[in-house]
Amino acid sequence: MKTSGGSDAAKRRAGEHAADLVTDGDVVGLGTGSTAAHAIRALGRAVDAGLDVQGVATSYASRDLAREVGLPLVELGAVSRIDLAIDGADQVSDDLALIKGGGAAHAREKVVDAAAARFVVVADPSKETATLDRSVPVEVLPDARATVRRAVRDLDGEPTLRAAERKDGPVVTDNGNLVLDCDFGALPDPGSLATALATTPGVVAHGLFVDLADEVHVGHADGVRVRA
Ligand code: 5RP
C-alpha cells in the first residue's frame, strides 16, 4: 500500500484511535492509504477478539488488506447504511476541507465516505494546513485526458499526468481511468473549484472533499487530537 510522508507512529495512533469508535454490528467504510491501513489492521484484531463488523472497501488495496486480516467484507450495493467511514487524507485545512487521491482511490473513497453517517479522517500532523495548496488529483476517462487538461488550464491549473512508479506508463485507477495531478496553487475557496471540476465532462472524480469530513483524528507523539 502506498505510503506518503509523516511518521508511521503518528499514523498508527490516529488509525487505531478511529478504529476504537467502531461498535458491534457496524458497517464501516475502509479507506485507502497507510494511515487507513492501521485502522483496518486494528479492526482485524478486534474481529479476532469477537467484534461483529462488516467493511466496505474503497479500493482493491483496502479490500486485499481486509481479507488478509480477516475483516469480513460486504459490497457497497448490498448495504442500506454505512455507520462510519475511516479514511486518510493528503491535506486537511483549518475548516476540514480535504485533498485526497494520493493513492488514486478518491473516486470510490468519495462515494463511501459521503455515504457514511459519520466520516472520520485519520492523519498525521504533516497533513495539516491552514489553506489547501497541494495538487488536486483528478481522475479522468482516458479518452478525455486532452479535453480535461485544457479545462484545467482554463481554470488556471497546471495538469500533470500521473506516472506509474514501478513501470513505464501512467497510473491506471481501479476503475481503469487516468489521473491528472492539477496544481492550482493555494485554494482559499475549494468549494467553487470542486464544483467547476465536478461539472467538467470527462472528469470521473476529483480529490477535493469539501463539507464531507465530520472529524479529523490527528496522531501525535503523546496521543490523538480530535478536530471537529
Ligand atoms: C488515497 C488517499 C489516501 O487516503 C491519502 O493519499 C493518504 O494516504 P496516507 O495515509 O498513506 O498518507 O486519498 O487515494
From TrEMBL:
Transmembrane segments: none annotated. Its EC number is 5.3.1.6. Pathway: Carbohydrate degradation; pentose phosphate pathway; D-ribose 5-phosphate from D-ribulose 5-phosphate (non-oxidative stage): step 1/1. It comes from the Archaea. The keyword Hydrolase does not apply. Homotetramer. Homodimer. Catalyzes the reversible conversion of ribose-5-phosphate to ribulose 5-phosphate. PANTHER family: RIBOSE-5-PHOSPHATE ISOMERASE. This is Ribose-5-phosphate isomerase A. It comes from Haloplanus litoreus.
